Amino acid sequence: MVVKQISVFIENKEGRMKKAINTLAQENINIRALSIADTTKYGILRLIVSDNEKAIEALEKDGFIVREDDVIIVAVPDEPNGLNTTLAIFDEKGINLDYLYAFVSSKTEKAIVVMRLKHMDEAIALLKDSDAHILEKKDIEDL
């Protein structure tokens, strides 16, 4: 039930983000979701892509530092407080959320939320118990 996300460490310099995105485009890799977190010196570009192995190889060849992490992707109601109903599941059990980012698609009435949590296995079990709609990689590719 986990999906592999890649994280690209990027110097906070003009043109570096464009170079990373261009590297993926040249390899015909589709970006399904992305998030960027930055500091004054560097940023972390988090991506869900169509081909992790190919993306990692291309980015590393272009001089980027890349890491692959497990994330959980959940469809939540695209309405006020829709996300909080899912977050409450973790709050009740004291599971810490490391980060999340979200996107919407015209192919679903749900918001799609990518989450990284401290205790992934426990989080997945809780989501399953609450009948949450956990997406897999093939589900993301269909959006």
Automatic annotation (TrEMBL):
Gene3D superfamilies: VC0802-like. Pfam families: ACT_8 (PF19571). Transmembrane segments: none annotated. Residues 71-143 form the ACT domain. CDD domains: ACT_Bt0572_1 (cd04908), ACT_Bt0572_2 (cd04882). This is Amino acid regulator.
